[in-house]
From TrEMBL:
Pfam families: CW_binding_2. This is Protease-like protein. It comes from Acidothermus cellulolyticus (strain ATCC 43068 / DSM 8971 / 11B). Residues 234-591 form the Peptidase S53 domain. The lineage of its organism: Bacteria, Bacillati, Actinomycetota, Actinomycetes, Acidothermales. Residues 72-99 are annotated as: Disordered.
Length: 1037
């Protein structure tokens, strides 16, 4: 029996749309000839004379002069195609559009546009009668609705209708639109099309349901599907699940429903989907959203139905939203813009592609990029098929016979995961590269996009920066990233056209991988995984990504010298290899730390004034944890170059994970997914694409404010340790030395305020922590809390807040912010609470039955950390040095009753037996013999042991009196934030030997130091000796 073939020719202007290698054949015993299905298009508009059949395509008018050099100029309005008129009996025409015709202009915005910068322009458009909608947050496009007459008047142009020889319409502008001055600098590219409403309707009313055993229901085929698979050599869903180790994901407890968005440019038959679900007993919900009028009526070629069924086969309870559009250039853009704006899908899938040389004619890749970056910032994972023409993506006979090396858009987009193709015959057989008579796995090197940072170290020998006009010494984006079964000879069984058939292609592979990611998102406690490419490349060579090293090359046409063969490591045939679903889930969804957890370092930390430099910030999540779709913020001090994402500019900034934007002087990195124990690197002043960052003109210590958060945290919290950089004069003179500063007030309350002013020079706290000033335990246990919530630790009398404390709270914390009160009403009275409410703040009291129980409650507020530092609650010295150590370890301070264990502490440790415990000082070590002891000969020696244990290369050091507690109470958070210990010293005399030795050992890393309290607490002789040992400028006498 011959194969049954579905083929639908869809022609467009300026757009080659290819459905990615769906091959279907009827079930037969003789393995009938397999014919590859493609949706093909005519050449770009500049070649319209060659059998053009446009389909309501909107021709883009390029307004962005900063587009990459590889992007061709805008297509112009076509001239009449008299050469082909005789073959169709029709002469192409161009005429103005009727003035009352509703139209929609879609105006793309440049990356990182601040909404306030375009508000005036939008207001101007609206006052002229146009309706304007912003898409995305931050905005990526404007949708402008009105009549053709209104658009003509406001934009000082004319909307014209072009009809080609196939009598299909293109709308475009007769001349470049004149945008309001407020908008001109912010806009990229504009499309115009007839105004059409979008709509959504439900295809199936079957509600999604989770298995009572947890997770999705494992799919099992009915007899008809199993028979079709046996007859054709294809695989059922359960066999695919077994081969790719998807099975364990079905047993995972669901955390949330997951939505998968499919981009489709053809209709499908709902009856096919219903039959597939009935066979497998699945309960996926399928809805459609029509964009720009939808994809038309009918059942389509079967491609869309196959995509839907492959997602269901892997993720049986997914919510699937099918975005349907006509498939012309404008509707392709509009579809992606709609998905980004809706932001309801966790996984976005397209099995359609446009070969880069064709796509660049309409500037579509540069138009799309902000949309895909927006999706990544949304936390959406976007997948695209790499194609079925092997290394020659433009080859789509009979209409397109270009056999040159090329890759597909959008698969080559840096924020998209490109899925290639493999083959295997038996479930237990290894994957090999795919190349048969019917097609080959797509892959190669982008001619548009430079190599993203996450691919560094994975450059193939075929790569060259000249291909994409990248800087010398760099390279270009490579695809695919990962691969799965695509060979239709041993493909998937699908129900299409009323019967079971074997299908294949990288589109089917992409939809299947989307189903796997939907299962991972569904069960990941930390939330959907978002942009996965950086994590995938970190997982190369692990069990999560299995290298594919065998199989044929992917030179489908035989004209490219065998490009590309599979090889050990990353290659252009299968990318990183194929996934192991269970191992990938464990890697993409590791345990995550709390907001503000982790550490950040900077290299170099010594620079000279008035120079161009490059600073590399490395953020590492807390030990044993990773990050799932998280955020990292780095705020650059105003004396440095402003950060920017524009290459060639001072302050050019790059990152090797996440999606990077700049907001003022803050570097914002979103959608960071990191496997456990890995690191993300941000380079400020990247000299590979810019001159570096301009340093301050004066010698100084510069501290960069930082914050981090996993997606589940709801907002980034300040890191406990902010990186500091010492700026020296060109000769490295004394003026560039760090400084030993004295932080002191008139009393302990004033010193706490001074410490707050040290940390929050211009305000910017996220919270405030309040403790009583007359006794120490609550304040000592509150040090890690103050660091975690990014706020000062302030002291107050129990009865009421002094005016100085009230003023400091109002200075550092916006109205409506939280204030944490440590202890019950005997520690901080109800009057204190009422004063805060009157000022508009939100008090949160953390208290227990006694000081020991209050420390336990603070530990609960910290999220019950895995590190506990125990110290005596009957005396202050050991707890003073424990506070910064608790901050740097993301731990908590618990109190013992001197040498006896407190009941509250004992109960907490019984419930949390796996925590790492340190006993600081002799009394705590006696109370908990099982803890790691840090016990010195005296309080000074104990503080040195703590410093040596936790601070081997501090950038700052705090000193406090070991003779009395008041002045040191608030020094812990300030010292810990600079990544340093708090050491106890005598009020006067000589430094203890152990302290002096520690200073000598760490002097090279110390950039600044603080003396907490006046000269009565830490005398000038101690200050002078400390400054000399640490090579710091001493404070004024």
């Amino acid at each position: 029996m011959h194969a049954t073939q579905w083929r639908r020719r869809v022609t467009t202007i300026g757009l080659l749309v290819v459905v990615l290698g769906w091959t279907a054949h009827a079930a037969s015993s003789d393995h009938a000839e397999q014919t590859q299905l493609r949706r093909v298009a005519t050449p770009p508009i500049s070649a319209l004379a060659v059998n053009a059949q446009p389909s309501d395509a909107a021709v883009p008018l390029v307004l962005d002069s900063a587009a990459p050099a590889a992007i061709a100029g805008p297509p112009q309005i076509p001239q009449p195609d008299t050469a082909n008129a005789s073959t169709s009996g029709r002469v192409p025409t161009t005429r103005p559009l009727a003035g009352d015709t509703p139209v929609q202009a879609t105006i793309a915005l440049r990356s990182a546009v601040v909404p306030s910068a375009i508000d005036a322009g939008i207001h101007r458009l609206r006052t002229n009668g146009l309706s304007v909608t912003l898409l995305g947050d931050p905005p990526v496009a404007l949708l402008v609705h009105g009549t053709a007459r209104q658009v003509n008047r406001v934009f000082r142009t004319s909307v014209v209708s072009y009809r080609g020889i196939a009598d299909q319409e293109i709308l475009t502008f007769a001349m470049p639109p004149a945008l309001p001055a407020d908008l001109a600098a912010a806009t990229g590219t504009a499309f115009v099309r007839r105004g059409q409403a979008t709509s959504a309707h439900r295809l199936t009313a079957v509600p999604a349901a989770f298995s009572t055993a947890g997770g999705a229901v494992s799919p099992q085929p009915c007899t008809a599907a199993a028979n079709a698979a046996s007859a054709t050599g294809a695989h059922t869903a359960d066999q695919i699940a077994s081969h790719y180790n998807i099975g364990p994901l079905y047993a995972a407890a669901p955390q949330r429903p997951v939505t998968v968005a499919l981009v489709e440019f053809e209709p499908f038959n709902p009856a096919d989907i219903a039959a597939f679900q009935q066979c497998y007993g699945t309960h996926a919900t399928v809805t459609t959203v029509q964009v720009d009028g939808g994809a038309g009526a009918g059942t389509g070629s079967g491609r869309a139905a196959t995509d839907i069924e492959m997602v269901i086969a892997a993720a049986p309870d997914a919510n699937i939203v099918v975005y349907q559009a006509p498939g012309d250039t404008g509707s392709v853009y509009d579809t992606y813009a709609r998905i980004a704006a809706d932001n309801t899908a966790q996984v976005v899938v397209t099995s359609w592609g446009i070969c880069e040389p064709t796509a660049t004619v309409s500037s579509l890749p540069t138009l799309e990029r902000p949309l895909f970056e927006q999706m990544a910032r949304n936390g959406q994972t976007v997948l695209a098929a790499a194609g079925d023409s092997g290394s020659a993506a433009c080859y789509a006979p009979p209409s397109a016979t270009d056999t040159s090396l090329a890759v597909l858009d959008p698969a080559s987009q840096p924020t998209i995961t490109a899925v290639g193709g493999t083959s295997f015959a038996g479930v237990s057989d290894p994957d090999i590269s795919w190349h048969t008579a019917g097609g080959a796995g797509g892959g190669g090197i982008s001619h548009i996009w430079p190599m993203p940072r996450y691919q560094a170290g994975a450059t193939t020998t075929q790569n060259s920066p000249a291909l994409c006009n990248a800087p010398t010494g760099s390279a270009c984006r490579q695809v695919p990233d990962i691969s799965m079964l695509a060979d239709p000879t041993h493909g998937y069984v699908a129900y299409v056209g009323g019967t079971w058939r074997a299908v294949g292609g990288t589109g089917a592979a992409t939809a299947t991988f989307a189903g796997i990611l939907a299962l991972i998102d569904e069960s990941c406690v930390a939330g959907p995984v978002g942009l996965i490419n950086p994590a995938l490349y970190r997982l190369a060579g692990t069990s999560a990504v299995v290298d594919v090293t065998q199989g044929p090359n992917t030179d489908l046409t035989g004209t490219n010298g065998g490009a590309y063969p599979p090889a050990t490591g990353v290659d252009l045939a299968t990318g990183l290899g194929r996934p192991d679903a269970a191992a990938l889930a464990a890697a993409l969804c590791p345990p995550t730390g709390a907001a503000g957890s982790g550490t950040i370092t900077v290299d170099p930390n010594l620079v000279v004034t008035n120079s161009s430099t490059s600073l590399t910030f490395r953020y590492t999540p807390a030990s044993g944890t990773g990050m799932v779709n998280g955020e990292l913020d780095i705020t650059v001090p105003g004396t440095w170059s402003l950060p920017t994402t524009t290459s060639g500019q001072p302050g050019y900034t790059t990152a090797d994970a996440g999606v990077l934007t700049v907001s003022g002087n803050t570097i914002v990195l979103r959608s960071i997914t990191l496997p456990a124990n890995s690191t993300v690197t941000v380079t400020f002043g990247d000299t590979s694409g810019g001159p570096g960052a301009r340093t301050p003109s004066a010698a100084q210590i510069t501290t960069f404010a930082t914050a981090s958060a996993p997606a589940s945290a709801g907002g980034a919290a300040g890191l406990a340790r902010n990186p500091a950089v010492r700026v020296l004069t060109p000769g490295g003179s004394q003026a560039g030395q760090g400084t030993l500063l004295r932080i002191a007030g008139a009393d302990r309350i004033g010193t706490a305020i001074a410490a707050s002013q040290l940390r929050f020079t211009t305000g910017g706290a996220s919270a405030v922590v309040l403790a009583r000033a007359d006794i120490f335990p609550d304040a000592l246990a509150g040090v890690p809390l103050a660091a975690q919530v990014h706020g000062p630790l302030l002291l107050t009398p129990p009865s009421s807040l002094p005016i100085a404390v009230l003023n400091e709270i109002q200075r550092v914390l916006p109205v409506g912010g939280p204030v944490f009160l440590l202890g019950g009403t005997a520690a901080l009275s109800a009057t204190v609470e009422q004063q805060l409410v009157t000022l508009g703040y939100l008090p949160h009291r953390i208290s227990g039955m006694d000081r020991f129980d209050t420390a336990v409650q603070i530990a609960h507020a910290l999220g019950d950390p895995t590190t506990i530092l125990e110290c005596s609650g009957l005396d202050f010295p050991d707890a003073l040095s424990a506070g910064p150590a608790a901050v740097i370890t993301h731990g908590a301070v618990l109190l013992t009753a001197g040498p006896d264990q407190a009941a509250a502490t004992a109960a907490y440790l019984t419930v949390h037996p796996r925590v790492t415990r340190y006993a600081i000082g002799g009394p705590a070590a006696h109370a908990d013999p099982g803890a790691i002891p840090l016990v010195g000969a005296d309080r000074y020696a104990t503080s040195v042991l703590v410093a040596q244990q936790f601070f081997t290369a501090p950038s700052g050091i705090g000193l406090a009196s070991g003779a009395a507690f008041p002045d040191a109470l608030a020094g812990g958070p300030a010292t810990a934030e600079a990544g340093g210990p708090l050491l106890l010293v005598p009020p006067s005399g000589a430094l203890p030997t152990g302290t002096a030795n520690y200073f000598s050992a760490v002097a090279s890393s110390v950039l600044t130091g603080w003396l907490f309290g006046g000269t009565a607490a830490v005398g000038t002789d101690i200050a002078s000796e400390t400054a000399q040992a640490l090579v710091l400028v001493p404070p004024p006498s």
